[in-house]
Amino acid sequence: MGQKEQAANALLDFDLLSRLIVGIGEVSEITGVPQRKIRYWEEKGIIQPVKEVEGTTRRYDYINIKKILLIQELLNDGYTLDAAAKKVEDRMENINKVFLELAKKTKTR
Question: Quick check: pTM over 0.85?
């Protein structure tokens, strides 16, 4: 199996994605978004870390990592932070609606 096929299969592994939780340093390294910027977005309520014990390193799940990537991409395209965050929230909402509909259809079969 090629690397592209493995990556595609990983995206289909919802169990893996639900357990994917990484620290802010790893998120910064993977996404190229500085930790300071990630913290700022968190302060503004754009992203939310996974709730853990007080005083531990900030940790983020798949959904928030995806948001970080999409927002940074839109910022690079010239959007303001507020406009980028709104656009990403709208996209995420549309994606969730589609998957909920698919889940309903799958259950009725």
Answer: no
